[in-house]
Write a structure and sequence with these properties.
Blueprint lengths: L10 H24 L20 H28 L4 H12 L6 H56 L1
Helix pairs in contact: 1-2
């Protein structure tokens, strides 16, 4: 369930939230892509005492600042697409607008099912993260181990001669 835009209006808060963070993410990504092209000035850019000292420092500062802003904007966009409020969160927002005081049983059941789904997703993500970590250890560790094993074998062979 993605927040929805049912007849009860519960999707309005989700739409405003998504729109706000989507626009902010796009704006940061655009600013980040434009920043490296900025020439030294006193108005626009990552202006620090260090970056204003010379052209090379300015260029490096703008490049780093631009990449940081662009990555932040992209992370905001992806997070915005992946964020999924539960039924109870959506209903709570709706309640605050309408003045209702209690959660209906249907919403509670939807929330319980939503939390079960989230737990399954989190477990799957955790398993994949562990697999990625193990694969990284193998890809990095195996060549290092082989290099040192061969080096030890060569030293042993040279010592026996």
């Amino acid at each position: 369930m993605r927040g929805g835009s049912g007849a009860d209006g519960t999707g309005a808060a989700r739409c405003v939230f998504s729109l706000m963070f989507g626009i902010a993410g796009i704006a940061l990504a655009i600013m980040g892509s434009v920043m490296p092209a900025a020439k030294p000035n006193s108005v626009v850019g990552l202006r620090t005492t260090w970056s204003m000292k010379n052209e090379k420092a300015w260029t490096l500062s703008q490049r780093f600042g631009g990449m940081s802003l662009a990555v932040t904007g992209l992370v905001m966009l992806v997070g915005n697409l992946l964020y999924e409020p539960g039924p109870a969160q959506i209903y709570e927002r709706y309640k605050s607008m309408t003045g209702d005081t209690e959660l209906p049983e249907e919403i509670i059941q939807q929330q319980v099912e939503f939390e079960r789904q989230q737990a399954r997703r989190n477990n799957t993500v955790s398993v994949y993260a562990n697999l990625r970590g193990a694969l990284a250890y193998v890809l990095v560790g195996l060549p290092v181990w082989l290099y040192h094993w061969k080096k030890i074998q060569r030293e042993a062979a040279a010592g026996n001669s």
